[in-house]
Backbone:
């Protein structure tokens, strides 16, 4: 599969949006550390913030579909073992490195309730079921890893259906329709726990992204609309308007219904343009997974040692970029080279986004 340029800087922007979102909203029940002011207002307007993870899911579903379709085109089949062998070298090492730090190291350094660790959350994190359990456990130093659990569950469901002979587009439509039906029922029921579980799954974004990948792979005629300059401008404007929609909307279901199509259109516009990226953009994109993995434990640590206000934000950015750079060079690069040797016939050129 040929490399698709243009996603690196957007991935980094989304990962930084998650960092800023946690700075704005998290830990108030543990120890308040900032007051609402000009910086908060600027961050809310400039960042996609709460829906940054949804964007990652859309992009993840898009690239996931391209991998599957490319493999099926080459070998006329999809292999679960090859997929997870490749993923073992890409996602799991950094994930379980964070798991080790968050569940074994930080609880020794920082006492409860700053780090809330229990057997249920530990098992959930180890078995990629954190998105189901975490909404009921309160704050957790690795609570942000629920998104990786959701993507792992989605990947497994899709692969199981694919090896049984189903098609990518049918699976995508079925999962998206099922999720939206469940979300409507959850919203109507008024049961907060039900709504939280649906919100922490986001299979709709993954499924819609997968359908976009299928359309892109087939070079569907409808995508030619996105080559029009006026349409591209409309997509960019809609993306920029999402922050305002998030601020004034009280319905997560409404935001999801608006955000996912905009993200799909943005991903397809970038993929259709396929521009060559500058080296610095590529480097930032490569750090996006590490930024997502490390920013939350580092935020916990900084709060524990007494950093507050704007200093907390800038310290979190600095230490997170440092940790992401170090782990990228000592963990991700060597394992990527080993992965390419082990799974030479399978590994695509397009890097997966953070989960």
Residues:
């Amino acid at each position: 599969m040929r490399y698709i340029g243009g996603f690196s800087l957007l991935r980094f922007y989304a990962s930084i949006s998650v960092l800023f979102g946690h700075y704005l909203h998290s830990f108030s029940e543990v120890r308040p550390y900032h007051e609402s002011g000009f910086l908060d207002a600027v961050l809310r307007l400039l960042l996609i913030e709460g829906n940054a993870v949804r964007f990652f899911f859309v992009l993840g579903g898009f690239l996931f579909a391209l991998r599957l379709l490319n493999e099926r085109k080459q070998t006329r089949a999809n292999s679960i073992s090859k997929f997870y062998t490749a993923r073992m070298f890409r996602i799991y090492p950094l994930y379980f490195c964070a798991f080790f730090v968050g569940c074994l190291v930080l609880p020794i350094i920082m006492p409860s309730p700053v780090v809330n660790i229990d057997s249920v959350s530990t098992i959930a994190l180890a078995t990629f079921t954190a998105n189901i359990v975490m909404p009921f456990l309160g704050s957790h130093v690795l609570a942000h890893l629920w998104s990786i659990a959701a993507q792992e569950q989605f990947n497994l469901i899709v692969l199981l259906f694919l090896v049984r002979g189903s098609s990518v587009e049918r699976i995508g439509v079925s999962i998206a329709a099922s999720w939206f039906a469940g979300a409507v029922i959850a919203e109507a029921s008024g049961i907060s726990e039900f709504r939280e579980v649906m919100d922490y799954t986001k299979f709709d974004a993954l499924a819609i992204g997968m359908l976009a990948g299928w359309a892109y792979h087939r070079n569907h005629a409808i995508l030619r609309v996105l080559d029009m300059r006026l349409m591209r401008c409309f997509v960019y404007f809609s993306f920029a308007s999402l922050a305002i929609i998030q601020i004034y909307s009280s319905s997560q279901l409404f935001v999801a219904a608006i955000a996912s199509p905009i993200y799909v259109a943005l991903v397809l516009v970038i993929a259709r343009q396929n521009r060559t990226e500058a080296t610095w953009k590529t480097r930032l994109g490569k750090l996006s997974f590490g930024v997502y993995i490390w920013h939350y434990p580092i935020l916990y640590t900084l709060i524990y040692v007494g950093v507050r206000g704007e200093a907390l934000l800038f310290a979190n950015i600095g230490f997170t970029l440092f940790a992401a750079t170090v782990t990228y060079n000592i963990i991700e690069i060597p394992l990527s080279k080993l992965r390419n040797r082990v799974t030479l016939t399978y590994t695509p050129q397009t890097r997966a986004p953070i989960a």
Remarks:
- The chain has one domain: 8-342.
